[in-house]
Design brief:
The chain has helices at residues 10-22, 40-46, 62-69, 86-94, 107-136, 154-164, 172-190, 199-211, 217-248, 253-258, 265-276, 290-304; strands spanning 2-6, 27-32, 50-54, 76-81, 97-102. The chain has 306 residues and is an alpha/beta fold. 32% of the residues are buried. 57% of the residues lie in helices and 9% in strands. The protein has 2 domains: 2-122, Response regulator (Rossmann fold, 3-Layer(aba) Sandwich); 154-304, no CATH class.
Length: 306
């Protein structure tokens, strides 16, 4: 099973991940520090089966998050909280939460409940498989073409990658999503003649789209500069996040996949040394290759699109 963890406490997220992996219950495909950072598009791109979600979070709590996701999410919710109020527990169950687990975390309880969730979901999948097989004999042949509604949008793919890179809360992440959309439109427009535009052309393109055709040149130039600054700050945050992953676990799959894909590895290693030596003043003058990052983000997002 694929698990997605939503909890504002990084220690809790780490403990749950360790429990799931140690008990061979599945894999953790994503995590977020607040419910406001998760939507159905992100869960779909991550192919999540089970969402482990905290009740109390600073921006959007577990109840509101489940309410926002439950209509379209086909998996299961398991809520984890230190709150034992009966009315809140009752509301969680009424929204479709499968189990409500109280903190502190108990390994045996977590393992037992998640095994039950897994077994129930596997049973339901088997039943659906049988029904699908029976329908072959009673329904018309289906079209081999995939409908557009089944195609994963590049914005959802980009949001998933941005979340993995630890910068979903940065204002520059929205600029990056607009850049992905701009590049996709250019690729569709130019076809085989497409090549990556310069950074100047890219930022000018998203600035013009954001401000509209009536915007004055001075306004566009101002937006271009502001957008570049927001993106640069977001990329710096992503560098810190990836370097931190490497310090915690050099074999972390995200670190291995992203450290050289999105950055120059020497810069990642340099940031790791800065973070490791807390007595040294951390430098925010890291040389981040913005063009490489944007091209890598676009290419990785395109790979995720069906």
């Amino acid at each position: 099973m694929n698990y997605f963890i939503i909890d504002d406490d990084p220690a809790i997220r780490a403990m749950l991940t360790e429990m799931i992996e140690d008990e061979d219950l599945g894999i953790v495909v994503g995590e977020a520090e607040d419910g406001s950072l998760v939507d159905n598009g992100l869960l779909a791109i991550k192919d999540a089966d089970v969402v482990l979600i905290d009740l109390l979070m600073p921006i959007r709590d577990g109840i509101e998050t489940v309410r926002a996701l439950v209509d379209r999410f086909k998996g299961r919710f398991v809520m984890i909280s230190q709150v034992e109020a009966k009315d809140l527990i009752g509301e969680a169950y009424s929204l479709g939460v499968e189990y409500y687990i109280t903190k502190p975390l108990n390994r045996l309880e977590i393992a037992g409940i998640l095994k039950k969730v897994n077994e129930r979901m596997l049973l339901e999948q088997s039943i659906r498989g049988i029904q699908k097989s029976l329908n072959i004999f009673t329904s018309r042949p289906q079209s081999p073409f995939v409908s557009s509604s089944q195609t994963k949008d590049i914005m959802e793919a980009g949001r998933s990658l941005i979340s993995d890179l630890g910068m979903i809360g940065e204002s520059g992440s929205e600029d990056l999503l607009r850049i992905l959309e701009f590049l996709q439109n250019e690729k569709q427009r130019l076809g085989s003649a497409f090549k990556f535009p310069s950074l100047k052309e890219t930022f000018a393109g998203i600035a013009a789209e954001k401000l509209g055709i009536k915007a004055m040149e001075v306004e566009i130039q101002k937006e271009i500069k502001a957008s570049e600054q927001r993106v640069r700050r977001a990329l710096y945050q992503a560098l810190i996040h990836i370097a931190s992953l490497g310090l915690t676990d050099y074999a972390n799959p995200k670190f291995e996949a992203y450290s050289s894909t999105f950055f120059d590895f020497l810069e990642v290693r340099k940031k790791m040394l800065e973070l490791e030596d807390k007595s040294d003043k951390a430098s925010n003058q890291s040389r981040i290759n913005m063009k490489k990052f944007i091209q890598a983000l676009f290419m990785e997002a395109m790979k995720l699109i069906v």
